[in-house]
Write a structure and sequence with these properties.
alpha/beta; 25 helices; disordered C terminus; NAD(P)-bd_dom_sf; ligase; Acetate--CoA ligase family protein; Succ_CoA_lig_flav_dom
Length: about 675
């Protein structure tokens, strides 16, 4: 991948003097790095771009190009690639789109294979290019401001938009990689290459599909360990993107919930908009992360401080009252009308003596009573309204930035474009123009998942012939440790089973909706009548009889999972029973999960309080329920032929759990069978 970061030489094929064409922008960007690498332009005979004359062919180059930018019509691409490979080129940036359309289906794949066979790499095709601030490599449309945010984007234009927002926030771009069609270089590879990129402090990923999702999760974790957390922006959260599966589990698990599970496993964070991404990137690229959730709010207006405190608490942060000692120290710095308990209101002190902002922040930082400071209000606007105050405000900004090297300080300012705000941003201090954005970003930064490697799925077992129906699902799950009530096939009788009984039509997937289950049968005679009546309605088939679970204080939970096309097996737990889709109280994780992880999943449910003793009720067997989650996750991980599993409901009681219905779907050549 080094060829895409710091090539020894670059050739732009398709260079143009026409400013409306891609070839001009690629050539212009490449020329900016001509002082540190050879730059060659290949284009129309005699054309001159920014003072550099174009050559008519790669063969006219004095030496082999290391990296070649392809900006020629689709029909010319294979010939250019063959020429460059013959000369020893090691990398290609494929700007050209529509290869399959112009040259026939499979042309793009064949081109990538030809490049790989020669030991070279291809970025794209159909990409917008790349940029690296550290090596002054610029082979992309548009302009970039150097900074600390790396952007890896499947959409070139959206990636550019993120770069613009990052520049507006004073964050700037450390590296930009437009992935295009990912015929060779993948998102995971482009991200992994950032682990040793010194200028990068945070990473933005925009993806529409995730390819090998598990490899991507491992890359998230590696970057998190390297101190470069990943922020993910994607699409597909609407109803149209929900999994088309037969089970409740599939209907309950959206594409976004799976992406969120993947992000949590890898220590990344998903956001919902470009603006949110840049807000959070500022927080994650700051010199010091929040140490915890305690936030000191400092303002020069009571209303702004109170609003900031409310917003901070709504984002899961705490705004605890200061100790009497700290409040007294602050009071000694401020007018009598100032509020010093947290939030702090300077009550006009900043207007009389601008150093009050810095002194208050310094005292709070030295107290150890806050994990972060949110400064909101007029600071940063004084110099804009009165240029005579510029120098003083910049000096105060420098003192605040010094504090921010050891304690997270986030600034929400009414100012725009002032020298003081520029000074803060130059030192990496996050500056926001909306207090809700500041509070949101601070909350997400404080909740950043810890670094750690996600668990690898176990070695898959050899697939077994699919066994259909409830009885087969029950036997498969019982083999993984999921407990079921005593039962047998109905034709075997009820000897050894205790009444009351439950009768089930084995082949039906959702028995309650289809009238395929009868409960509370008091004896064998009632069971026989129910079986005859059910056969009359539903037709011949296999029936199952089980002991009915009659325990008191029972909560019904759903445990299931499915095989995601990108991220593989995922496990789901939630409030179960026949109303599962009404309440939609579920949590999702990548499978397999440990007992500890399964327990944490259950704690994330709104219904968790029902399991731990709601309104004086007894605590239920949460540990046994967690083991069912573990078992289902193992089944999905070990059996690649299993496409989905649903155990619903799992009846959780005081002394244990019982699964009383189950569905297993298998992957056939054309989908579920």
């Amino acid at each position: 991948m080094r060829v895409f970061a710091d090539p020894r030489s670059v050739a732009v094929v398709g260079a143009s003097a026409d400013r409306a064409k891609w070839g001009y922008w690629l050539a212009r960007g490449a020329i900016k790095g001509a002082h540190r690498r050879e730059v060659h332009l290949v284009g129309r005979q005699g054309a001159v771009v920014e003072g550099v004359r174009c050559l008519s062919s790669l063969h006219d180059l004095p030496s082999a190009p290391d990296l070649v930018a392809l900006c020629v019509p689709p029909g010319a691409v294979p010939g250019v690639v063959d020429q460059a490979l013959g000369m020893g080129a090691r990398g290609f940036v494929g700007i050209t789109a529509g290869l399959d359309l112009a040259l026939g289906e499979g042309a793009e794949r064949a081109l990538a294979q030809r490049i790989a066979a020669a030991g070279a790499r291809l970025l794209g095709p159909n990409c917008l290019g790349l940029y690296d601030a550290a090596t002054e490599l610029h082979l992309a449309w548009g302009s970039f401001s150097p900074g600390s945010l790396a952007i890896v984007s499947q959409s070139g234009q959206l990636g550019l938009a993120l770069g613009t927002l990052a520049a507006d926030a004073g964050l700037g771009v450390s590296r930009f990689v437009s992935l295009g069609n990912q015929a060779d270089v993948t998102a995971a590879e482009a991200l992994a290459d950032l682990a040793g990129h010194d200028r990068t402090r945070a990473v933005a990923l925009y993806a529409e599909d995730f390819g090998d999702g598990r490899a991507l999760v491992e890359t998230f974790a590696a970057l998190r360990e390297a101190g470069k957390p990943v922020i993910v922006l994607t699409v597909g959260g609407g109803e149209a993107s929900r999994a088309a599966a037969r089970s409740h589990t599939g209907a309950l698990t959206s594409a976004m919930e799976v992406v969120d599970a993947a992000c949590e496993a890898g220590g990344a964070i998903r956001v919902t908009s470009p603006g949110r991404l840049v807000d959070l990137a500022q927080a994650l690229a700051a010199p010091a992360p929040p140490r915890g959730r305690r936030v000191a709010v400092v303002s020069d207006g009571g209303g702004q401080g109170a609003l900031a405190a409310d917003l901070a608490e709504s984002e899961g942060l705490r705004v605890p009252p200061f100790s009497a000692e700290l409040a007294a120290r602050l009071a000694a710095l401020l007018p009598p009308a100032a509020a010093t308990a947290n939030p702090v209101d300077l009550a006009g002190a900043g207007e009389r003596d601008m150093t009050s902002y810095a002194r208050v922040v310094e005292v709070i930082a030295g107290s150890g009573e806050a994990d972060a400071v949110l400064l909101t209000g007029y600071f940063g606007a004084w110099g804009g309204d009165n240029p005579a105050l510029d120098r003083t405000e910049v000096s105060v900004a420098g003192r605040i930035a010094e504090v921010a090297r050891g304690l997270a300080v986030h600034v929400d300012s009414m100012g725009r474009g002032t020298e003081a705000l520029a000074a803060l941003r130059e030192c990496g201090v996050p500056v926001y123009d909306r207090v809700d954005g500041a509070a949101w970003a601070l909350g997400r930064a404080a909740a950043l998942p810890p670094a750690g490697r996600p668990g690898r799925p176990p070695r898959p077992l050899a697939p077994s012939p699919p066994a259909r129906g409830y009885w087969a699902a029950r036997e498969l799950l019982a083999g993984y440790g999921v407990p079921f009530p005593p039962g047998r096939l109905a034709e075997e009788g009820v000897d050894g089973l205790r009444a009351p009984y439950v009768l089930k039509a084995d082949w039906l997937e959702h028995k309650s909706e289809a009238g395929g289950v009868v409960v509370g049968l008091p004896d064998g005679a009632a069971l026989g009548r129910a079986r005859r009546e059910m056969a009359r309605r539903l037709g011949p088939g296999r029936y199952v009889v089980e002991e009915m679970d009659t325990r008191d204080h029972v909560v019904e939970i759903i445990v299931g999972g499915r095989r995601d096309p990108a991220f593989g097996p995922v496990v789901v737990a939630g409030f179960g029973g026949t109303e599962v889709e009404l309440w939609r109280d579920t949590v999702t994780a990548l499978a397999p999960v440990t007992t500890r992880a399964a327990t944490e999943m259950l704690r994330g449910l709104r219904c968790h309080r029902l399991l731990t003793g709601w309104r004086g009720g007894p605590a239920l067997a949460v540990g046994a329920l967690a083991e069912v989650v573990v078992a289902v996750s193992r089944l999905l991980s070990e059996r690649p032929d299993v496409a989905e599993v649903e155990v619903n409901p799992v009846r959780v009681g005081v002394e244990g759990v019982l699964a009383v219905d189950a569905l297993v779907g298998y992957a056939g050549p054309s989908g579920l069978t």
